[in-house]
Amino acid sequence: MGKKVADDFIIKVDTRINSLLYHPFIGSLTKYQNIRGIYITQHNRMYYKVTDNKVTILNLYDTKRKNYG
User: Fold this and answer.
1) What is the DSSP letter of 42?
2) What span, in angstroms and rounded, lies between the C-alpha atoms of 8 and 4?
3) Does pLDDT of 63 surpass 90?
């Protein structure tokens, strides 16, 4: 991955995090209780939860990868 691609991805993640500061319930609910997901890019999704006045990022997931395990 090139530096520009990495820099662009960091900007997209930062933009989504800033969006969550103002609109914490913008992400869609998942099958797990109180866990929400929001797309960073077409193939990258961020999972988070909202408790009290806090947003906790749980995971960044590459949706192209197969789930081995």
Assistant:
1) T
2) 6
3) no
Q: Are 46 and 60 in contact (CB under 8 A)?
A: yes
Q: Quick one: residue 7, left, alpha or beta (phi over 0 = left, psi -120 to 50 = alpha)? A: alpha
Q: In 3-state terms, what secondary structure has residue 37? A: strand
Structure tokens at 54: 């806090």
Confidence band for 66, pLDDT divided at 50, 70 and 90: low
Instruction: For the chain, list the domains and their CATH numbers.
Output: 3-62 (3.30.2310.20)
Which long-range contacts link 14-20 to residues 24+ away (Cβ below 8 Å)? Answer: 16/40, 16/46, 17/55, 17/57, 20/48, 20/55
The residue-averaged pLDDT of 32-57 equals 94
